[in-house]
TrEMBL record, chain A:
Any coiled-coil regions, as ranges: none
CC per GO annotation: aminoacyl-tRNA synthetase multienzyme complex; cytosol
Short name of any one Pfam family annotated for the protein: tRNA-synt_2
GO biological process, one term: aspartyl-tRNA aminoacylation
The protein's name: Aspartate--tRNA ligase, cytoplasmic
Classification of source organism: Eukaryota, Metazoa, Ecdysozoa, Arthropoda, Hexapoda
Cell compartments where the protein resides: Cytoplasm
From TrEMBL, chain B:
UniProt cross-references to Pfam families, sorted A to Z: Thioredoxin_16
KW Nucleus (keyword) present: yes
Protein name: AIMP2 thioredoxin-like domain-containing protein
Residues annotated as domain AIMP2 thioredoxin-like: 119-198
Organism: Gryllus longicercus
Compartments it resides in: Cytoplasm, Cytosol; Nucleus
Keyword Protein biosynthesis set for record: yes
Coiled-coil regions listed in the entry: 68-95
Any one GO BP annotation for this protein: translation
One Gene Ontology CC term in the entry: cytosol
Keywords noted in UniProt: Coiled coil, Cytoplasm, Nucleus, Protein biosynthesis
Gene3D superfamilies: 1.20.1050.130
SUPFAM superfamilies named among the record's database cross-references: GST C-terminal domain-like
Length: 529, 313
């Protein structure tokens, strides 16, 4: 067949270079040799006598749902001493394998759980089977039938340390390419500066280019399970507080905040923008008497900032709430939301947190109940005492925020705190000014490990006052007409805020890069995969 | 007196022999002050000049100088002022020694607050050993302590304790943020940049008593012996909490008993910081009346009454 092809090629295209011809010839020779070797192999096997393990190993045909097989599979993390002596079926990935004479040691991995498996030549296992198993490449998905055996010494390096599997049959369900762009072991190696172990690391970009493989590491499995937990708890807690989940449009006609950092998309004959915050719609829902609303959805920011904590698309968890007389009603609700969230995460995701901690060693997240609320002037005083020069009406710079985070941690022993009463000058025009001090505002930032995660405020709900404030800020009234008009038919006083899911998970776990907590991160330099 | 320009020369006081016999066993060295040699050379001219100046000065000194008179007057005035100040200080000392009633504390409260102890004190306490002394102190200071409670994430819910410690004051003398955490000893900190944390409840009390009204400051009297006895008893309070056996504790109770033989309270006939510490320590260990000497039992009853907080232990 190869020869045929070559002939066709030469007749079809006279221009084919000598080099290409040579290459083709070489390939033909190679495949011929391969074929020969294969036949030889078959012959030697025949010489060895009949393979008595036939039917106990091999490559399964592609599963196309041809038949129902009622077979119970045991999850790897359930393989414990209690199952010792019983036969189980396991579908897992071949993590590593190592042949040693007449036996082959393998590690099977299923999500974060690993178990050692042994295939040894014996009554039912032939030499050929052991050879086959040792040639199965890493990351193949295999079906394994095996006996669970308790081991005298715990198996170091596996999550199931007290048992191992004595394999009686093994089938490859889905094969992986023998050469992997990154080794799962390298990608899962503990992040330590010191130590005697190997120092092979997988570059962040390599990880992201091969995200499917990278996500198979135990730490990544745990991170995204925890991320799902944050979303779930955010919903549960807010629903228990009487919030209603709403969905806001992502294609909008005008920029809701400022306008410099929005993505433009073509919209039929004109153009539209991608929403950079659901704020306007949350507020309209409040004006429409939904009382308390939250939304979870994608948010887009066209900021060309390549930092460890900025993404161009992220998941926003936003809430807005009407209050009776004081915006602290809202602030306390938000504070309680976070306290409950952290408490339940630490309780319900204890395994995930430890798993992540095994790869990225970091201190446990600490917080106070009720959350610590500091006023902005107090924070400025703390910073000044530490030698930072900062004006009364200045915003905090990123290094200042970090330093303040460390000071607060040292003094109050908490990684989570709320900073209240920001200077009015550094807040957007719709922020309600403080009634007692014209330089302050009813606005707050929330910090985790010294990094801002939420910025919120009491919004101005009076259209005339809002117009006045917008004029003062030099905002084009035409552009925000729709926003102001939303309050013309009466609107309860309200406040709210929004957090970025990825950032919260990153800071809760103490990771150093937001790309670690976004499954397929989008930043100014990456839109694939 | 009139600056360096118009200085007068003086005659040498000691006249040296022209030639000095130097012993031979010593090194010869160059004269260091070369200028001195120059002076010696034209001595004769200098001598004449000096004698003229001396005469002038002598004449001058015979008249009394107006500057000197002014200076003398000023000195007198200062001495009188100093004497007055000393008298005032003595008066103050006398006043402080007098026993004061609770009403006078209230006046002091405002003063201290103005003096600037509005900085926040962060106290970390173990819920198994609540610092009851804060409650007692608050009672003595007529609710002038602001306590805000926080539960640290490493600690479980506390229930009842929290409510007892929630204290708000309109004109707070101390602002305390109380963080409940599994710490081995009560800790407190004021500024993370200037100070390091200080441990134990008695040290917290010592600090508060110093920054609070002087009535509670056992060092204010200036009596070193009194202060050291108080310190010793405060340390005893700490040991009571740390001691794990009843027998060990009873040794310390006996010390209390001895202190209470003459007086109603540990440091005399008025309530002091030491009583607060002792009362809090006994509360924390959950004392049993039969383990205490009888006079200590009476004393704790008195304390319970004064501090008015019937804290279940």
């Amino acid at each position: 067949m190869v020869v045929d092809n070559a002939a066709e090629g030469s007749s079809g295209d006279q221009q084919k270079s000598k080099k290409a011809l040579k290459k083709e010839a070489k390939e033909a020779a190679k495949s011929a040799k391969k074929e020969e070797r294969r036949q030889q192999n078959a012959r030697t096997q025949d010489e060895d006598g009949e393979d008595y393990s036939t039917g106990r190993y091999g490559n399964l045909p592609m599963i196309q749902s041809t038949e129902h097989v009622s077979r119970t599979f045991t999850p790897v993390h359930d393989l414990t001493e209690s199952l010792a002596g019983s036969d189980v079926w396991v579908r897992a990935r071949l993590h590593t394998s190592r042949a040693k004479g007449k036996q082959c040691f393998a590690v099977l991995r299923q999500q974060a759980a690993t178990v050692q498996a042994i295939i040894a030549v014996g009554e039912t296992t032939s030499k050929a089977m052991v050879k086959f198993v040792s040639n199965v490449s890493k990351e193949c998905i295999v079906d394994v039938e095996a006996k669970v055996v308790q081991v005298p010494k715990p198996v170091v390096g596996c999550s199931q340390q007290n048992v191992e599997l004595h394999v009686s049959s093994l089938f490859v369900v889905s094969a992986a390419k023998p050469q992997l762009p990154l080794q799962i072991e390298d990608a899962a190696r503990r992040d330590e500066e010191e130590g005697d172990g190997l120092h092979i690391r997988v570059n962040q970009d390599t990880r992201l280019d091969n995200r499917v493989l990278d996500l198979r590491t135990p730490a990544n499995q745990a991170i995204f399970r925890l991320e799902a937990g944050v979303c779930r708890l955010f919903r549960e807690i807010l629903q228990s507080k009487g919030f209603v989940e709403i969905h806001t449009p992502k294609i909008i006609s005008a920029a809701s905040e400022g306008g410099a950092n929005v993505f433009t998309v073509s919209y039929f004959k004109g153009s539209a923008y991608l929403a950079q915050s659901p704020q306007l719609y949350k507020q309209m829902a409040i004006a429409a008497d939904f009382d308390r609303v939250f939304t979870i959805g994608a948010v887009f920011r066209a900021e060309d900032s390549n930092t460890h904590r900025h993404l161009t698309e992220f998941v926003g968890l936003d809430l807005e709430m009407a209050f009776k007389y004081h915006y602290h009603e809202v602030l306390n609700t938000i504070g309680d939301l976070f306290t409950q969230l952290f408490r339940r995460l630490q309780k319900e995701h204890v395994g995930d947190i430890t798993t992540v901690g095994q790869q990225y060693p970091v201190d446990t997240f600490e917080f106070l109940d009720p959350p610590l609320i500091l006023e902005f002037p107090a924070a400025v005083a703390m910073l000044r005492e530490a030698g930072v020069e900062i004006g009364d009406e200045d915003d905090l710079s990123t290094p200042d925020e970090k330093l303040l985070g460390r000071l607060v941690k040292k003094k109050y022993d908490t990684d989570f705190y709320i900073l209240d009463k920001f200077p009015l000058a550094v807040r957007p025009f719709y922020t309600m000014p403080d009634p007692n001090d014209s330089k302050r505002s009813n606005s707050y930032d929330i910090f985790m490990r010294g990094e801002e995660i939420m910025s919120g405020a009491q919004r101005i709900h009076d259209p005339d006052f809002l117009t006045e404030r917008a004029k003062l800020h030099g905002v084009d009234l035409e552009k925000i007409r729709a926003y102001i008009d939303a309050f013309r038919y009466g609107c309860p006083p309200h406040a709210g805020g929004g957090i970025g899911l990825e950032r919260v998970v990153m800071l809760f776990l103490g990771l150093d890069n937001i790309r670690k907590t976004s499954m397929f991160p989008r930043d100014p330099k990456r839109i694939t995969p | 007196m009139n600056g360096p320009n118009s200085m007068y020369k003086m005659r040498p006081i000691i006249k040296l022999a022209e030639e000095i016999d130097l012993p031979k066993c010593m090194y010869k060295m160059k004269v260091i002050q070369n200028s001195h040699c120059v002076v010696q050379k034209d001595r004769s001219t200098n001598d004449r000049l000096a004698s003229a100046i001396t005469e002038q000065v002598n004449k001058f000194l015979k008249k009394p100088m107006p500057e000197v008179v002014a200076l003398e007057n000023r000195q007198e005035a200062i001495l009188v002022q100093l004497a007055q100040l000393k008298q005032q200080l003595n008066n103050l000392r006398e006043q402080l020694k007098k026993p004061t009633s609770c009403t006078s504390i209230k006046i002091q409260v405002q003063n201290t607050y103005k003096n600037g102890l509005h900085e926040e004190i962060v106290v970390k306490a173990n819920p198994k050993r609540p610092p009851y002394s804060l409650l007692a102190l608050n009672r003595l200071l007529q609710n002038s302590i602001n306590i805000r409670n926080y539960v640290h994430s490493t600690t479980e819910d506390l229930g009842e304790i929290l409510k007892q410690f929630n204290k708000t004051s309109n004109s707070p003398l101390f602002n305390i943020r109380l963080i409940w955490k599994d710490v081995p000893d009560t800790e407190f900190l004021i500024s993370p940049t200037k100070h390091s944390g200080i441990t134990t409840e008695v040290n917290l009390l010592r600090f508060l008593s110093r920054s609070g009204p002087p009535e509670l400051n056992y060092e204010a009297s200036g009596d070193a012996v009194f202060a050291s006895i108080a310190d010793e008893l405060l340390d005893t309070c700490y040991r009571i909490v740390k001691e794990t056996t009843i027998k060990g504790r009873q040794i310390h109770f006996k010390l209390f008993g001895a202190a209470l033989q003459k007086y109603q309270f540990l440091m005399g006939d008025t309530v002091s910081v030491v009583d607060i510490a002792g009362w809090s320590a006994l509360k924390q260990i959950g004392y049993v009346s039969k383990d205490l000497p009888s006079n200590v039992n009476k004393w704790i009853e008195r304390c319970n009454h004064i501090f008015g907080v019937n804290v279940a232990h």
